[in-house]
Amino acid sequence: MYKTKGVILFSPTRTIIKDHISDPCWCIVQLDDEFSKYYQYVCKKIYNNIKLQTPKWGPHITVIRNEFLGENYDWKSLDRKEIEVVYNNKIENNGKHYWMPIINNEIYYEIRNNMGIFTEPEFNFHLTFGVTT
After folding, report:
1. Quick check: 88 and 105 in contact, CB under 8 A?
2. CA distance 61 to 39
3. What is the spatial distance between Cα 21 and Cα 110, in angstroms, rounded to a whole number?
């Protein structure tokens, strides 16, 4: 079990795209870019020099994936709040995306519930740090 810090962002801006496009109806927890660089280096050593690039929002956990937030929910009270991220450093991938499992899922469900979303997320909560080029 490993710990780091992340920042909650609603309608995050894609950092890789030069036009800096914002994605409404999304919420992520963004980590420092150095986190991504470190685990991309680890993957390069483990997976025969595989080259990974940083995801469009940097290393992140997707909490809300293009789901409608009601107008009565105070998302601004959580926006840019720093939280603790607890993860397992077992690297997983689907051939394109590279991630690690999240251990403290309760906080992400709490964010979803506070925004009026009571359904399960499309994917289990995980920390994405790399994408194949």
Report:
1. no
2. 15
3. 27
CB atoms under 10 Å from CB of 126, counted, come to 20
C-alpha to C-alpha distance for 98 and 93, rounded to whole angstroms: 4
Mean pLDDT calculated for residue range 38-66? 93
Non-local CB neighbours of 131 within 8 Å, separated by 6+ positions: 52, 53, 54, 55, 96, 97, 98
Q: Give the H/E segment covering residue 113.
A: helix 106-114
Spatial neighbors of 78 by CB under 8 A, at least 6 apart, are 8, 10, 111, 114
Q: How many angstroms separate the CA atoms of 79 and 11, rounded?
A: 9
Return the closest-CA partner of residue 43 out of 83, 87, 5, 90: 90
Please spell the DSSP secondary structure of 40-64, one letter per residue.
HHHHHHHTTT--EE--TTSSEEEEE
Q: Name the percent of the chain lying above pLDDT 90.
A: 61
CA 52 to chain centre: 16
* Domain spans in the chain, listed from the N-terminal domain onward: 2-132
Predicted pLDDT of residue 116: 85
